[in-house]
Amino acid sequence: MSHPNQAANFLKDEKRAHWHDETLWFVREKRDISSKGIPEWEELRKLASGIKDHVLSKLDYYLEELEKTASANGIKVHWAKDAAEHNEIVLSILQEKKCKAIVKSKSILTEECHLNPFLEKHGVEVVDTDLGERIVQFLNQPPSHIVLPAIHLKKRDISEIFHEKLQTEKGNEDPAYLTNAARIHLRDKFMKAKVAITGVNFAIPETGEFVVCTNEGNADMGVHLADVHIACMGIEKIIPKREHLGVFLRLLARSATGQSITNYNSHFRSPAPGKEIHLILVDNGRTEQLSREKFKNSLKCIRCGACMNTCPIYRRSGGYSYGSTVPGPIGSILSPGIDVKKYSTLPFASTLCGSCSDVCPVKINIHEQLYEWRQEITKAQGWSAKEMSMKMANGIFKSPLAYKVSGKVLRATLKTLPDSLIYNPLNAWGKGRNVPEVPKESFKEWYQKNRS
Ligand code: SF4
């Protein structure tokens, strides 16, 4: 997996890349307008960051509390140390219920655990019910963005997919028409599913409840029609008390889409008579990330996607160029924590401009952590061309004589250097850059001639 190579693929279609950039910037602007609409925005960010810091410092305590209170409410709590264990737990529940078809609402965790292919391998039909997720599912693709899963597709693409999969009119790109077709198609799936799977946005140990946020109401539709609700959550999704929810709900909706509130913020506290709720608490590398002092606060992330929408690299390289479930700036911190070799190029997919940290509603120092990862990865690789050239530059800048001589040599040689030496596949610098015109003389020489 190499981010530069995948990004180069995305950039081959210049028009689409430009459109992708503009579309995400539009979302970023909506976020700006919405956040500036409340004077206490910075206060909320500070509060949210502090609450999450506190949770991470006592995560073991809060998780056990959640297990106690949720169990007392009649929720069956399971623990999964990794993706494999999580998937086995889900499968065992489905097998016990003799269930062969499920509906699922958007859950980044189940993407992270690759639940869909696992269940399909075991003969279970999985239907993603979020509209964007259903669209990418038709293409056998993962989401390209954590909030806007099909943001890389245009209306025309969706019209073609629906024509093929749902037999809509050829060439009809009307969003209302296409959405209605998806609604009819999904309604049938909802009616038949005995088990519904959702993610979890926030879990509250104080009351033993959890909250799921969607704009389409698909989580609610699935859960209320099914006999069994399986909710899958990463262990970092805790907020201590219900009173803290207001802070996070206000931040989440505004940061994600610029809405003042997400359409459906549904609380699940205990199963209705005759029904079951299962809550699976998944670690999958989170405890290890918590043990990394420099990177632990990446676990404060509430998955709003704002850092992606603002990132100049994400906007211009697309979600798939990251090759990880969570793309963009925060994914470039989380993914190397899971497999540093596989994701070693991701921390370099950043301008380090800091825009991601500026918009993050829980004040994660994203760009600083990316910089930290770069150092860790470079150290682990043992050497880097950049480090060697910096050492060389250090020697040259320290000595006026070396500076003068090397300047003369470079001015003479750069003019005669064949293009093939600079613009070739082995020299990444030459891709998309031109060597500036070489001056005839140094500034010092020019100044001495012209000072009078
Ligand atoms: S790191 Fe911050 S901005 Fe990015 S998705 Fe997470 S909460 Fe949102």
UniProtKB/TrEMBL annotation:
Keywords recorded for this protein, A-Z: 4Fe-4S, Electron transport, Iron, Iron-sulfur, Metal-binding, Repeat, Transport
Coiled coil: none
Cited InterPro entries: 4Fe4S_Fe-S-bd (IPR017896), 4Fe4S_Fe_S_CS (IPR017900), FTHF_cligase-like_sf (IPR024185), Helical_ferredxn (IPR009051), LUD_dom (IPR003741), LutB/LldF (IPR004452), LutB_C (IPR024569), NagB/RpiA_transferase-like (IPR037171)
Annotated protein name in UniProt: Lactate utilization protein
Pfam families assigned: Fer4_8, LUD_dom, LutB_C
Source species of the chain: Algoriphagus pacificus
Every 4Fe-4S ferredoxin-type domain range: 291-312
Lineage summary: Bacteria, Pseudomonadati, Bacteroidota, Cytophagia, Cytophagales
